[in-house]
């Protein structure tokens, strides 16, 4: 590092590092958007595992949960499209994922509190299979 600073100077070195890091944001944002799409599809599958009684016990929160999951899927797909077409900056995609990424988990927590459930139906199925 010190030889690079001596060769290029401090400002040029930090500009090279910053250009390298900015160049790495696009693959990271694309991978994160893809992971968000997969998580949204998994949450959507779990939503349809809730039985009618659980959805009827908290109809508003179950609909809000479904909407937040659909928002998560659309956010991931939109992030992939935005990165592929270079429509918006990668920081915008990462910021939106950071802001809205945890919203379905929070809504599901409130939904579980209202129906007095410890875990979701997908977690119950997995624990039943592995025990």
Could you explain how this protein is built, in words?
This protein has 131 residues and is an all-alpha fold. The protein has one domain. It has helices at 2-8, 10-47, 52-57, 59-85, 90-100, 103-115, 121-130. The mean pLDDT is 86.
State the main characteristics.
131 residues, mainly alpha, 85% helix, elongated
How does the helix and strand content classify structurally? Answer: mainly alpha
**Contiguous helical run count:** 7
Helix content: over 70%
Oligomer: single chain
Give the total of domains.
1
Global mean pLDDT: 86
Overall 3D form: elongated
β-strand percent reads: under 5%
- Uncertain regions spanning at least 5 consecutive residues: none
Instruction: Give the C-alpha Rg.
Output: 21 Å
Largest sheet: none
Number of strands: 0
Order of helices and strands: HHHHHHH
Distance between the termini: 53 Å
Write the layout of secondary structure elements.
Layout: H1 2-8, H2 10-47, H3 52-57, H4 59-85, H5 90-100, H6 103-115, H7 121-130
Short description:
The protein has 131 residues and is mostly helical. The protein has helices at residues 2-8, 10-47, 52-57, 59-85, 90-100, 103-115, 121-130. Helix 4 runs antiparallel to helix 5 and helix 4 runs antiparallel to helix 6.
């Amino acid at each position: 590092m010190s030889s690079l600073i001596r060769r290029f100077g401090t400002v040029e070195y930090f500009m090279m590092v910053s250009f390298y890091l900015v160049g790495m944001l696009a693959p990271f944002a694309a991978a994160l958007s893809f992971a968000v799409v997969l998580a949204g599809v998994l949450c959507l599958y779990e939503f349809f595992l809730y039985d009618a009684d659980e959805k009827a016990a908290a109809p508003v929160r179950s609909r809000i949960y479904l909407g937040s999951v659909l928002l998560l899927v659309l956010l991931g797909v939109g992030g992939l499209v935005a990165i592929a077409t270079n429509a918006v900056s990668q920081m915008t995609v990462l910021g939106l994922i950071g802001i809205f990424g945890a919203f379905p988990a929070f809504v599901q927590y409130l939904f579980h509190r209202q129906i007095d459930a410890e875990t979701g139906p997908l977690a119950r199925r997995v624990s039943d299979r592995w025990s």
